[in-house]
Design brief:
Elements (H helix, E strand, L loop, with lengths): L4 E3 L2 E3 L5 E6 L4 E7 L3 H20 L2 H17 L1 H12 L3 H21 L6 E3 L6 E9 L2 E5 L7 H13 L2 E5 L5 H13 L7 E4 L3 H10 L3 E7 L2 H11 L5 E5 L4 E5 L5 H13 L9 E7 L3 H12 L20 H16 L3 E4 L3 E4 L2 E4 L2 E4 L16 E7 L2 H9 L3 E2 L1 E5 L3 H10 L4 E4 L14 E2 L2 E2 L4 H6 L2 E9 L1
Helix pairs in contact: 1-7, 2-4, 2-5, 2-6, 3-4, 3-6, 4-5, 9-10
The structure holds 1,4-dihydronicotinamide adenine dinucleotide and the ligand O=C(O)[C@H](O)CS(=O)(=O)O.
1,4-dihydronicotinamide adenine dinucleotide (NAI) binds next to helix 7 and helix 8.
Length: about 475
């Protein structure tokens, strides 16, 4: 495993200044990694700025070729990358390898998208003029990524950036640097030139502030908490950087009386318990129409009872540990608040320690009411509060009553109702009879305080391009 920082094609870092990477399933140190700060952040920008003219000067086909080679090497190493990810983040190995495939999907998508950055010609209003529209790379991009998807949140930013002709400075989360450094190693092996991709980790605020203050950095792209996203957005204003923010979510999962209950239960299991509930598009609140509340709740409870919690390296584990003790405390606080306000735990409800790892049982709370913390704040853990509703109009109003607008889900076999409700939901991503909508070809992103911009699909590359028009006198 690489433990030094990757700057300008060199692996560097002081032996005396490192931080420990801990396996959340055992609390054991798995590596000591260079603890980057202001100096390394500045060196990375210098490298990316210097490499920009060369990289943006390649043809689209040439950049596409580099991305395709990187994709091939990641594919060849996906089991190893998955194991590194499970050891530093905790998700079950099968899910980690699945994430590597999802992450690699952005690289293959943008290897092709690089060749389709089209311009326009616009009819001039004077016979002696011609108007041409071009799209050009924004320049040096800084990417700051979270621990919950250590591979996908990097490639979802860096693949379109490189495809567009930008160069990148990347700060991984301090919880999960090893996956990021492995991706850097494979980028180096793919022949992506020095300075194009730079990966550091360490002191978040020092690194972030250095990039915010540097006017050579033309874009900030961030995935993480809404709180930090707001800080970065404010800091970006100083030099008017472009900003892409994928922030917190609070997904409602709506089950109408005409839903296929078995399908809804199966999809809710996926949406709620993927990554032990630590994803920004996880279901955070479940609304079930009153007429089917009992039938649905029984089916859902039976399915939850089948889930296995444990070390992600073990066979047949569905939920790994939570990332740290603070995560456990937050989930516990939401559970305690819910039961204090009349909610009842129908299954689960306990955290426990196993071989040093901190786990939270997959949990269902019945009798949830809209005044509970779990119905308003991002839980980021395996707790599903169920509330009932009477009418379509009521549930739309309650689902939209949130500062978040990232993902929402509605289950109904009535196509008219499914269209009406999905169009009325104020969310950037709506799963209709689908609890796992994330794919590289679709524009992922949120409304309201869930973020700005989109990642994935042809929308995702626009975030790394400037639009210029040339007015030509003839
Ligand atoms: N929307 C999403 O996908 C995610 C949302 N979250 C939410 O955020 C909460 C906290 O989780 P964290 O991992 O601590 O998220 P966070 O937002 O604190 O960290 C995300 C990234 O931002 C970096 N960061 C933090 N403060 C920074 C600063 N001042 N300048 C520059 N970079 C900075 C971190 O080092 C990490 O790389 C979670 O409980 C969850 O609610 C967390 C991860 C992903
Ligand atoms: O940050 C997250 O939680 C991810 O964006 C969710 S997904 O894209 O992996 O579904």
């Amino acid at each position: 495993m690489r433990k030094k920082l990757y700057i300008n094609g060199k692996w560097q870092g002081e032996e005396h200044d490192q931080f420990d990477v801990v396996n959340p399933a055992t609390k054991q140190v798995i590596a000591a990694v260079s603890n980057g700060g202001k100096n390394e952040a500045e060196q990375a920008v210098e490298a990316a700025h210097t490499a920009f003219e060369m990289w943006s000067g390649f043809t689209a086909q040439e950049r596409s070729g580099f991305l395709a080679k990187w994709h091939q090497l990641i594919e060849e190493n996906k089991e190893e990358i998955g194991k590194i990810m499970t050891m530093e983040q905790g998700k079950p190995l099968k899910e980690a390898i699945g994430e590597v495939g999802y992450a690699n999907g952005f690289i293959s998508w943008y290897a092709e998208e690089a060749k389709r950055i089209y311009g326009d010609t616009i009819p001039a209003s004077q016979t002696n003029k011609r108007i041409f529209v071009q799209k050009q790379p924004v320049g040096v991009v800084s990417a700051i990524t979270p621990w919950n998807f250590p591979a996908a949140m990097i490639t979802r930013k860096v693949a379109p950036a490189l495809a567009a002709g930008c160069t990148a400075v990347i700060k991984s989360a301090e919880e999960t640097p090893l996956t990021a450094l492995k991706l850097a190693e494979l980028a180096e092996e793919a022949g992506i030139p020095a300075g194009v991709v730079n990966v550091i980790t360490g002191k978040p605020k020092e690194i972030g502030d250095a990039w915010l203050q540097d006017d050579r950095v033309r874009k900030i792209t961030f995935t993480g908490s809404t709180e930090v996203g707001k800080q970065l957005m404010k800091g970006a204003a100083e030099t008017v950087k472009k900003v892409s923010l994928e922030l917190g979510g609070h997904a409602p999962f709506i089950v109408m009386e005409d839903a296929d209950l078995d399908k809804a239960v199966e999809q809710l299991i996926g949406s709620k318990f993927r990554n032990s509930g630590q994803t920004c598009i996880c279901t955070n609140r479940v609304y079930v129409q009153a007429t089917i509340l009992e039938a649905f709740s029984e089916k859902f409870k039976a399915a939850v009872a089948e889930l296995k919690t444990g070390n992600g390296l073990e066979e047949n584990v569905d939920l790994g540990p939570l990332i740290n003790d603070q995560a456990i405390e937050k989930v516990q606080s939401h559970l305690d608040d819910a039961t204090a306000k009349g909610g009842e735990v129908s299954i689960g409800g306990n955290s426990f320690v196993k071989n040093g790892g901190q786990y939270f049982e997959p949990t269902i709370i019945t009798g949830a009411t809209d005044d509970m913390l779990c119905m308003n704040e991002e839980t980021f853990g395996p707790v599903a509060p169920i509330a009932s509703f009477e009418t379509e109009e009521e549930v739309i109003q309650r689902a939209n009553n949130s500062p978040y607008g990232l993902a929402a889900y509605v289950f109904s076999e009535n196509i008219g109702r499914a269209v009406r409700v999905s169009e009325a939901l104020e969310y950037g991503i709506v799963g209709v009879n689908d609890g796992l909508p994330s794919v590289p070809q679709a524009p992922f992103g949120g409304m309201k305080e869930s973020g700005i911009g989109r990642e994935g699909g042809h929308h995702g590359i626009e975030e790394y391009l400037e639009v210029k028009y040339i007015s030509l006198g003839v």
